Amino acid sequence: MNLDRVLQVESVTKVYGKGDNKTEALRGISFDVLEGEFLGIMGASGSGKTTLLNCIATMIKPSSGRILLKGSDISSFRGTQLADYRGKEIGYLFQEFELLDNLTARENIILPLSLHGVTGKQAGGELQELASRMDIVDVLNKFPSQMSGGQKQRVAAARALISKPSIVLADEPTGALDSKNSKVLLDKLYAINKEQQKTIVMVTHDANAASYCSRILFIQDGRLFHELRKNVKTETRDSFYERIVTAIAQLGGGSANVL
Predict the structure, then answer these.
(1) Three-class SS of residue 148?
(2) N or C: which end of the chain has fewer CB within 10 A?
(3) How many DSSP H helices and E strands does the chain contain?
(4) Residue 27 phi/psi, 5° resolution?
């Protein structure tokens, strides 16, 4: 089965500051993401993994190199094209939920569509399906202050998925959750990845979260330095988890280094 490349990252660098104050956050990173892939990105604190994700999201601009979504160079996007990319082609799942406190769960979820002229009524069917899948039907009319952390993150996940993006970017999505709610969220993201072939790129420090992925890239000092691929046909998640933990220990001197 030939899978299309959804995302191509080509020799991307990101440099902050100048002279003695220069910091190279990314140093020529290149990789592809295939359609339907669940890709994990791991690395020590300061390794560049969140910088990389933010370059893909166009929150920051690379110093050099190219990032292509479905063959189009995103650095060339301007105006409406850039707004469409951010609002329709990518969904972003933040560690700290980033819900608007003055909006209900329903309003938070459909916000990306509202910004592009789609009404709540038009989004009704998709909203209900996502709410059911994420087990948040009972909080749709509640405000974030009335929800648990797990509910907030599942609302945020529904918001990231509502526009049917080409790719979902998740930055430490379980970082603010306990182990029970982390498992609930990851099980649901995994199911969506498998059943809908939704492409997900997830930055994580957690080997257990990473074990849900089909492939993992390890970043060190702004460079890719290792890759693990899961044998999706024969390898269990527990077995992949053990390989991830072993790789972390060998590459970084223990799981505490992977932040």
Answers:
(1) coil
(2) N
(3) 8, 10
(4) -125, 70
